[in-house]
Description:
2 helices
Amino acid sequence: MSKIMRKFLFAFALLAFVFGASAQGGDPVKAKEILKRSSTKFRTYKTVSGEVKVVVTDQKAKVIETQTGTFKLKGNKFRLKLGNQELICNGTTLWTLMSDLNECSKSKYRPKPGDISPTNIFTIYETGFDSYYLKDEANNFVIDLVPLDKKRNFSKIRLYIDKKSNNVNMAKIFEKNGTHYTYTLKNLVVNKNMQDQTFEFIQKNYPKVELIDLGN
């Protein structure tokens, strides 16, 4: 699995360099009100799908890589596609499909407590973070989430939440190493019927792909 896909799996957000602790100057009360509306609405969705654009930059704002892809979420299941790679997870098993290599690795899905994943980015604020409303920007509320655990490899997550829909349009994580990842979500579709098999790797549908069971 490429680095950008690992970040997509565990961040679904932008990793950026922090030029100071600006988040602490925000409004925590307003932040919690906005976040509660967003997470409450998200919990009414049985499924969510859409498109994502990923831009990777360094701390000098030089673009390293840009990719576009799609995602599907259903409970603790997800399917993410970027370029030639696709992550498929049924909640317990993770398949990493690399179509350019005709390979698919299979492993157990074991997210660690506190990890950020596609299935919790909309509700991540509820535990382990202080939250601060910063400003209105265009059609979004801008909110920073600052981890209580200062040993985390990122300093904050910045969420852009649509004022009308209460959906997260963009999420950013400010990583301490200076690498920037930005994940912009668009064309969201909610409550579309998705079969559970959507979140399984069905080998007969990929006759040329070698399945590698990592058994971990």
